[in-house]
Structures are given as structure tokens and as C-alpha cells.
Amino acid sequence: MMTSNRPYLMRAIYEWILDNDMTPHVLIDATMQDVDVPQHYVEDGRIILNISPSAVQQFAIDDNCLAFNARFGGRPSSIYAPIDAIRAIYAAENSEGMMFEALPQANVPEEGDPEPDPPEPPPQGKRPALRVVK
């Protein structure tokens, strides 16, 4: 099994946006576990952040997370988002970039949720109906 290509694509698009003298922004799903962003800037469970070199310090995109320091309303904040929480990276000026699909979460039933119905067993003794097409 190969590692995720998401951090590699994010780093490449980040560099591409900067090389074209544009402003990179990220869209983060702030509802995901371990996301640490200023909650008073979160709207509908998401936050958009400017990640240009002039707006952030100690910026890093590694194989596991996006992390940096920035100021919000003049107050310093440490930002941390697991790679899986990043939904898009794009240029603010023209929206060119890449969106990422949400990865499936483990389906853990909440306490008090009814037990799901077991899947239907496949029919027994029936052979597949395959035929040769010319």
C-alpha cells in the first residue's frame, strides 16, 4: 500500500501558486479531530486561511499535517490541521488550485444508536450469468 499523495500535491500546488505571484489559501474542515484553529473564525465547520509566507511563520506541510503560526486580530495563534482535514488549496486571486475529497471516517456507532441490520447474504447455489460478447 502506498502513502497518501495529498501532502505531496499540497506542497507542489503551494509552490506553484507562489511561483505565479499569487496568494495561497487553504480550506480546512474544522470539525475533524485534532484540528486546532481559532474557533471564532470558523463558519459552517470550515475555515479559510491565508498561508502566504508574509502571513505565516514556521510554516510546514509534512506527511501528517499542516502547521504554522499566524496572527488573528493581532493575537498570535498556532495552527494545526491533519492532512486529512485539508479540503482545498488554491490561489485567492483566481481560485486555481485543487480540492480534496473527504476521506471516509471509521463508522463507530454512537452510544444509544440502534445496531445496524446485518448485510444480506449472497444467494446460494446460483452461478453468475456471464456470456461472451463478440
Structural class: mainly beta
Strand percentage? 25-35%
Order of helices and strands: HEEEEEEE
Quote the distance from N terminus to C terminus.
36 Å
- What is the approximate shape? globular
- The overall strand count is 7
Largest sheet: 4 strands, antiparallel
Main β-sheet, spatial strand arrangement: 2-1-6-7
Low-confidence blocks of residues: none
Number of helices: 1
CA radius of gyration is: 21 Å
Helix content: 10-25%
Q: How much is the average pLDDT?
A: 86
List keywords for this structure.
134 residues, mainly beta, 4-stranded antiparallel β-sheet, 1 helix, 10% helix, 31% strand
Explain the overall architecture.
This protein has 134 residues and is mainly beta. Helix content is 10%, strand content 31%. It has 1 helix and 7 strands; from the N terminus they run αβββββββ. A 4-stranded antiparallel sheet has the order 2-1-6-7, covered by helices on one side. A 3-stranded antiparallel sheet has the order 3-4-5. A hairpin with a 3-residue loop joins β3 (57-61) and β4. The two termini are 36 Å apart.
Question: How would you summarize what this structure contains?
Answer:
This protein is mainly beta. The chain is 10% helix and 31% strand. A hairpin with a 2-residue loop joins β4 and β5.
